[in-house]
Design goal:
- The protein is mainly α and about 70 residues long.
- It is about 95% helix and about 0% strand.
- The chain has one domain.
- The chain is built from 2 helices and no strands.
- α1 runs antiparallel to α2.
């Protein structure tokens, strides 16, 4: 495949991923708001677990970028 065409296709793919993530992030935040209104204590506990796993993912990603 021609390099220029591949680059254009890749840019388009990244844009699609970005747009999908924007929508999904909005959905995630809406769910978080509802959960917090319903049961703030449980929501905070679960959110802490999510953030802990996010930290682990960031550490793994840093291993990729440090090489």
């Amino acid at each position: 495949m021609h390099k220029k065409k591949l680059k254009k296709k890749t840019k388009y793919l990244f844009k699609q991923i970005e747009n999908t993530r924007k929508i999904n992030n909005s959905n995630w935040m809406n769910l978080l708001r509802i959960a917090y209104e319903s049961n703030p204590e449980k929501t905070v506990k679960i959110l802490k677990k999510i953030l802990k796993k996010d930290e682990a993912l960031i550490k793994l990603a840093k291993n990729l970028t440090s090489k």
